[in-house]
Amino acid sequence: MQNQLINWYLENKRDFPWRENQDPYRIWISEIMLQQTTTEAVIPYYNRFLEKFPNIYTLSQATLDDVYKLWEGLGYYSRARNIHATAQIIMNDFNGVFPTTHKDVLSLKGIGPYTAGAICSIAYHMPLPAVDGNVLRIIARLYDIEENILEKRVNDEVTHIIQGLLDGINPSDFNQALMDLGATICRPKNPKCEICPISNSCIAFQTHKQTVLPIRITKTKKQDIHYVTGIVTYNDYIHIFKTESGLLSNLFQCPQFNVESPFSFIEAYTKEYGVTLHVVSHIKKIKHVFTHRTWYMDVYHFQLDQPVEDLIPINTLDQYAISTAHQKCLKAYHLYK
Ligand code: SF4
Fold first, then answer.
1. Would you say 216 and 149 are in contact if contact means Cβ atoms under 8 Å apart?
2. Residue 186 near ligand 1, beta carbon < 6 Å
3. % of the chain surpassing 90 pLDDT
4. Residue 202: per-residue pLDDT
């Protein structure tokens, strides 16, 4: 799988100015600029920055205002401050040479595990993982990880998997191949599995879960609730029901459970209604604010394997008084005007 991915990368790699050589200074500047910013937006800033400050020495001689000027419009100015301060640290503590050990790179201001892994693997070919959102998504799909990728435990598991995959291969090419795969093929929405170079190793693709994974749930505040909300269908029918009490009393709603993933939804639904169903795709994240409470709904489409009570024809939905929160969910699935 690693070789298939690397071969694909070598033939299709995106052309970026920071890929012209493996100078750690150039890679460092690019990785900092790419934090929270797209590659397209970064390219002109990067070229201007490197023209003005081609090395650590020239950067260390600049004033903070000079650096800010070149950063103008890129946002997150703490990155510019960290770069400026780090250039002085490298001049004073490392004789003007970009540090060459992982520990020293990690000690620099504004450099966390992802950036240190990226710099050390790309510039020095160290077998170190560089796990960001792209890599979490790809690995969750490849290995069918059904847990929340925002949990530290899952991040650690993915880091461990990547560490194993790096054994005996070129870490610079492998990590950059993952970056390119995540940006161009294994995208968050509509992954292009039909042209993916590693689809034959991907469990999500083989089990049709590529639009369900990864599970990504942000922690909510105490008074907020996270739901997995189901657009549960059976042929041309949909499951909605009226609630007797609570925030939505006397209104129709879609089934939902305060659980972390569509797989836990299936368990809870089967327990409550005694029928089985399967998840088809993730539809949308929806936030609905009540006076004292906010609902964060992860809306998924599920198909029932057999009918359940309370099914109504989909084309009669507009005859029911449906809660606003669930109207939003149905609209997201184009079932409601
Ligand atoms: S087959 Fe699809 S889901 Fe799997 S890694 Fe490739 S693009 Fe991603």
1. yes
2. yes
3. 82
4. 98
Closest residue by CA, ligand 1 atom 8:
186
Question: What is the spatial distance between Cα 271 and Cα 183, in angstroms, rounded to a whole number?
Answer: 39
Residues 6+ apart with CB under 8 A from 27: 18, 118, 119, 122, 123
Q: What pLDDT sits at residue 222?
A: 67
254 CB within 6 A, ligand 1: no
Helix (H, G, I), strand (E, B) or coil at 291: coil
pLDDT attached to residue 292: 79
Do you find a cis peptide bond into 214, omega within 30 degrees of 0?
A: yes
151 among known catalytic residues? no
Q: Phi and psi dihedrals of 162, rounded to 5?
A: -65, -40
212 lines ligand 1 (CB under 6 A): no
pLDDT(335) > 80: no
Per the structure block, which two tokens stand in for 58?
A: 């020239």
- Where do the domains of the chain lie, and which CATH numbers do they carry? 2-206 (1.10.340.30), 225-332 (3.90.79.10)
Q: What is the mean pLDDT of residues 148-154?
A: 94
Q: Is the CB of 185 under 6 A from ligand 1?
A: yes
User: What is the number of other CB atoms lying within 10 angstroms of the CB of residue 10?
Assistant: 12
Q: Is 210 in the pocket of ligand 1 (CB under 6 A)?
A: yes
> Does residue 235 come out as left (phi exceeding 0), alpha (psi in the -120 to 50 range) or beta?
left
CA nearest ligand 1 atom 3, residue: 210
| Catalytic-role residue among 31, 147, 260, 267 | 31
d(CA 81, CA 91): 16
Q: 301 - beta bridge partners?
A: 231, 281
How much distance in Å is there from the Cα of 32 to the middle of ligand 1?
27
pLDDT tens digit sequence for 209-256: 999 999 988 777 767 899 999 999 999 999 999 887 777 777 899 999
- Going from the Cα of 228 to the center of ligand 1, the distance in angstroms, rounded, reads 24
Kindly report the protein residue whose alpha carbon is nearest to atom 2 of ligand 1: 193
Residue 116, ligand 1, Cβ within 6 A: no
